[in-house]
Design brief:
Elements lengths: L1 E7 L4 E7 L5 E5 L5 H10 L3 E6 L5 H4 L2 H8 L2 E3 L6 H4 L2 H7 L18 E4 L2 E7 L8 E5 L4 E5 L2 E2 L2 E2 L9 H12 L7 E4 L5 E2 H7 L5 H11 L9
Parallel strand pairs: 3-4, 4-5, 9-12
Antiparallel strand pairs: 1-2, 2-3, 6-7, 7-8, 8-9, 10-11, 12-13
This protein binds zinc ion (2 copies).
Length: 228
């Protein structure tokens, strides 16, 4: 499996394009907008889009999925059903921020532990609520590579200060679903630079070692599956 990252929309959302080298079939994670750039890339690389994978229902990530599927014939899978209510309101929410967005019903809502397939490649689905209820991450065990949307960033974590956000759930998702994949695993976040699980597990100011020690000292413990 190979992949490349295209920042799309004015939110510079990282759209990842993955492909199977044996079959040239591709999966596009979060076709949030600027669809012509995504389609140009696929054509230039002579890839056949098979799958549109959505990490969560926010318009910068999910807003272009319906149109991308219509343009290319790719099927949409994900996110988890917990984001169905956000996806149903994509037109309204995208419109508020000037991003054209369209709601959709995916071919498959995803559950924790599901596998998604394109060509001869397979990704594991990790349900990671906290930034929003239905957020999923995608993990290639073969490539030691994760695509985590707005759950975890280089030096930051996803926003939780909105009605679907939940800080304890977010911290639990990061530590019990992402960090346990292993320090060597690289990830593409929804925005900004890539990083590794190891770098964030140690240095992240919200969920790194120093931050977790602080939480424990102050509150007698935040969810910390690594030690509990
Ligand atoms: Zn988001
Ligand atoms: Zn985002």
């Amino acid at each position: 499996m190979e992949f490349d990252v295209l920042p799309v929309t004015r939110y510079k959302m990282n759209c990842s394009i993955l492909w199977c080298e044996q079959t040239s079939r591709a999966a596009v994670i979060d076709p949030g907008g600027d669809l012509s750039e995504i389609v140009n890339f696929l054509e230039l690389m002579e890839l056949e889009p098979e799958l549109a994978l959505v990490t969560h229902g926010h318009f910068d990530h999910a807003g272009g999925a319906a149109q991308f599927a219509a343009m290319t014939g790719a099927r949409i899978e994900g996110p988890h059903r917990g984001d169905a209510h956000v996806i149903a309101r994509l037109e309204e929410l995208g419109g508020k921020y000037g991003v054209p967005a369209q709601s959709f019903e995916p071919s498959r809502w995803l559950e924790d532990g599901d596998r998604v397939r394109f060509g001869e490649e397979e990704l594991e689905v990790l349900h990671c609520p906290g930034h929003c209820r239905g957020h999923v991450a995608y993990f290639s065990a073969a490539k030691r590579q994760a695509f985590v949307g707005d759950i975890l960033f280089r030096g930051a974590i996803g926003a939780w200060e909105h009605p679907d956000g939940d800080l304890p759930a977010l911290v639990t998702s990061i530590r019990s679903k992402l960090f346990v994949l292993g320090d060597d695993v690289s990830f593409v976040p929804g925005h900004g630079e890539t990083s590794t699980m190891g770098r964030e597990r140690i240095h992240n100011p919200f969920v790194g070692e120093a931050a977790m020690a602080n939480w424990r000292a102050k509150f007698g413990g935040m969810p910390d599956p690594a030690t509990e």
